[in-house]
Design a protein that fits this description.
Layout: E1 25-26, E2 29-30, H1 31-41, E3 49-51, H2 62-69, E4 74-76, H3 82-92, E5 98-100, H4 110-123, E6 127-133, H5 134-140, E7 156-164, H6 170-181, H7 186-194, H8 196-204, H9 209-220, E8 224-228, H10 241-256
Parallel strand pairs: 3-4, 6-8
Antiparallel strand pairs: 1-2, 5-7, 6-7
Helix pairs in contact: 3-6, 7-8
């Protein structure tokens, strides 16, 4: 799980006292703990490794420190960015499959995790990524603005779940590191993955999801596939204060049902 801060002065981190976004309480419980709980309740997750929030942050969360000391969780120091933190975690964990998610995925539940992992296993792919149709998200959260991937048959929202199923998936970890090096020019990242012709089709909205996955697979030399998620909650993470308020509202509704 990626649990490091992306940038100083994060507005969500400022809502808590820990000085770290991952440890900001959401309806009274640090968001990282909520994600850990969903992973521990999954039928398919055995070991959990955190990349972040870092040893210096553990003084503000004795429960997390105890879990690490008891060996219930492992923790690596975060790298300078999410992509580099993911690369660090994937190179540290030698076995496969590995699920990657983020500490701000506070609406995550075990059934979402299990659905994604079971379909990732059935896909026969080296790497899978979770995508949720924008229509599914907007049906439940009509006032919430989500960044969407504009592909034919979509658009789709990223859902912060990635499965690295085989040894060959290490090539994608290398690609993530390359993305980080070129992060200031996202067009080059897209073109590097899709190629010029497919990028033009993507920008025109005529490229399908299957075509995009096939092209990315060809470029990276591994089988990359998408798992379409039927859960609106899967596409919600806490990037802004507005997201924070939405998640707290959703959790209250869950508790009342």
């Amino acid at each position: 799980m990626l649990a490091g801060d992306r940038r100083p002065g994060d507005p969500v981190a400022a809502l808590g006292d820990a000085g770290c976004k991952a440890l900001t309480p959401v309806l009274g419980l640090p968001m990282l703990h909520r994600v850990v709980g969903a992973l521990r309740d999954s039928k398919h997750v055995s070991d959990i490794t955190l990349v972040g929030p870092g040893n210096r942050m553990l003084d503000s969360d004795p429960t997390l420190r105890e879990m690490i000391d008891r060996g219930e969780l492992a923790m690596l120091e975060p790298a300078a960015s999410p992509s580099l933190s993911a690369y660090r975690g994937l190179t540290h964990i030698r076995s496969r499959p590995v699920l990657v998610t983020t500490a701000d995925h506070a609406l995550l539940q075990s059934d979402i995790v299990d659905y994604f992992l079971e379909r990732s296993q059935m896909s026969g792919c080296d790497v899978t990524v979770a995508l949720t149709p924008l229509a599914t998200v907007m049906a439940k959260f009509p006032e919430n603005r989500r960044t969407a991937i504009k592909l034919k048959g979509g658009p789709y929202c990223g859902s912060n779940l990635f499965a690295f199923m085989t040894e060959e998936s290490a090539k994608v970890a290398d690609f993530w590191k390359d993305i980080e090096q070129r992060r200031k020019n996202p067009k080059k990242v897209v073109m590097g993955a899709l190629g010029i012709a497919s990028t033009v089709r993507y920008l025109l909205g005529t490229l399908s999801l299957d075509q995009a996955m096939q092209r990315i697979s060809h470029t990276l030399g591994v089988r990359v596939g998408a798992v379409i998620m039927p859960f609106a909650d899967a596409a919600v993470d806490i990037d802004t204060v507005e997201d924070f308020l939405l998640v707290e509202k959703t959790l209250r509704l869950r508790a009342s049902m």
